[in-house]
Amino acid sequence: MMSDANLIQKTATGNSLKMLQAMVGIGIICALMIVLTFQGTAPIIKEKKAEALEKAIFKVLPGIDKTKAFQLDQNNNFVPLEGEGQEGRTAYAGYDKNGQFVGVAVEASGQGYADIIRILYGYDPEKQAAVGFYVLESKETPGLGDKIEKDPNFLANFDGLDVSLASDQSTLKNKPVTVKHGTKENPWEIDAITGATISSRAIGDIMGASTEYWAPLIYKNKDAFGLNANENKQR
Question: What is the pTM of this model?
Answer without folding.
Answer: 0.80
